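Narrative of accomplishments. A recurring question from our advisory board has been how the design workflow behaves on a single, concrete structure rather than in aggregate. To address it, we present the structure tokens for one chain from the evaluation set, followed by the sequence designed for it. No filtering or post-editing was applied between the two.
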């Protein structure tokens, strides 16, 4: 798939492909209201549209990313609502049947990412976005909604699973893949090894996709 990508916008890689594959396998996607968080080029938005989603919303902190998503949808005749901000901005919207997320998850020496690094840098433990996402995600889903999150094993998938379950949803790893390090991890390999995120000599990372199922009934007065 050829995509328009503004300068500084994350180029879809294996994590994006794993996420889109898992998205296409969701049985309730046709007719669903879908939220693509951390949208980037909008590749997951396009996958949802191709699978029959009836409503599409894309969110990103990056204006160039939102422009890229809009252009990629526009040239394909796909209607999409755009929202500037992080996933918490969607809390003011009606709930979604499906939410997908490819958040920043790479441990980084600095506390705050800037520029293009917003797409991958996630604080010293790689959990700067994931912890908030796991806490917020259940509130974005309809009563029987589902979500998909992709991130690296470096960023502790077990912690994500535990946090999600603590917030009253079912969560499980549905797909995984091992890939050679990309340029970000190659450039940061020594620091990651020194801080225990990588084994000495490690040259590959495992990526996982976590599926979230919101099966519990909403409490009285809860936003629908």
């Amino acid at each position: 798939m050829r995509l328009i990508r503004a300068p500084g916008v994350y180029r879809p890689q294996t994590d994006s492909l794993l996420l889109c594959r898992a998205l296409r396998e969701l049985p309730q996607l046709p007719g669903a209201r879908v939220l693509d968080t951390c949208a980037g080029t909008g590749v997951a938005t396009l996958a949802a549209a191709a699978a029959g989603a009836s409503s599409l919303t894309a969110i990103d902190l990056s204006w160039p990313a939102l422009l890229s998503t809009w252009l990629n949808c526009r040239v394909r005749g796909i209607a999409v609502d755009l929202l500037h901000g992080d996933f918490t901005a969607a809390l003011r919207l009606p709930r979604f049947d499906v939410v997908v997320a490819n958040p920043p998850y790479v441990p980084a020496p600095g506390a705050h990412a800037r520029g293009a690094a917003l797409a991958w840098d996630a604080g010293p433990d790689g959990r700067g976005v994931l912890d908030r996402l796991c806490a917020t995600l259940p509130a974005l889903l309809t009563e029987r909604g589902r979500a998909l999150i992709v991130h690296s094993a470096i960023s502790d998938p077990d912690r994500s699973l535990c946090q999600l379950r603590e917030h009253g949803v079912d969560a499980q790893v549905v797909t995984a893949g091992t890939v050679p390090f990309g340029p970000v991890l190659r450039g940061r390999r020594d620091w990651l090894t020194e801080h225990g995120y990588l084994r000495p000599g490690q040259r590959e990372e495992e990526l996982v996709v976590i599926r979230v199922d919101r099966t519990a009934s909403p409490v009285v007065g809860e936003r629908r």
